[in-house]
Amino acid sequence: MREISYAEQTVNSGNPLARFAHRTRMTMATDLVTGLCPMRGTVVDFGAGPGLFLHKLGEARPDITLIGHDKFMAPTFPEVRYAESLDGVAPHSVDVLTSFEVCEHLYESELDALLDDAMRILKPHGALLISVPIMYGLAIAPKVSNWMIRSRSLKSEYSPAEVLKSMVGIRVQRPENPRTTHKGFDFRELRAIVGERFAIEAVHVSPVPHAPWWISSQYFMICRPRKRA
C-alpha cells in the first residue's frame, strides 16, 4: 500500500471536512505567527514535519528566519533550515517557538524538556504558540470517521461507546504510547501543565473561531514565559 504523505493526510486530504479543518488551521497558524513575530525575527517550529508550515509562513513573511526541527521527518523545502535539536538554538534568540499538533504525541518527560527549551531559547518577550487537537465534543465523530476512511477499515481505536463518551465530555482512557494516537487526549490537561510555567495570553479555536471549543477541532494557545523570581 502506498504511504500517504503528510499533505495528503492534512491540507490535501481527500475528505473535504478534514481538508477544510487543516487548511483553516494552517491559515490561523500563519496569521497568528505573522502577528507575533517582529520584522526580521526568528521562528522555530518544533515538530516541523516536512516543513510545510514554515514554507507557507515564509511566503507570507519573507523577512523571517525559518528554523525547523523534527526527529522523524526529513525537510522538503530548501529555504527552511533544520536544527538537529533545540539544544543547538542559542539562548534568548527566538521570537516565536511553535509546536503544532505535536504535544499530544509527547511523553511527560518530552513535554517537560520542550517547555524547558522554550524558556531557554525564547527572547524575554517571545511567544510559545501551541496547537493541539480537540478530542472531546462534536468533532470526535468526523475525526474517527476520517481515520476509518483513510485506513479503509470499519475498525477504529474508539469503540462506539467511547465516541459517545467523548462527544459529551466523559474521559476516555489514553493509550500508554501516545506516538501514533490522539485517543483520549485532553487539551485542558496540557493547558494546566503549560500554565505552571507560562502565562497563557490568549486562546483560539479552529475552524469555528467564535463558537464554544467543543464545536471546533483544534485549540491554540499563545504563551509567554513567566518572569522567574
Automatic annotation (TrEMBL):
Among SUPFAM superfamilies, the record links this protein to:
S-adenosyl-L-methionine-dependent methyltransferases (SSF53335)
Q: Which UniProt keywords apply?
A: Methyltransferase, Transferase
Taxonomic superkingdom: Bacteria
Record keyword Transferase present: yes
Instruction: List the InterPro entries.
Output: SAM-dependent_MTases_sf
Q: Which GO terms describe its molecular function?
A: methyltransferase activity
Q: Which GO terms describe its biological process?
A: methylation
What is the protein name stated in its UniProt record?
A: Methyltransferase type 12
Give the organism the record lists. Caballeronia grimmiae
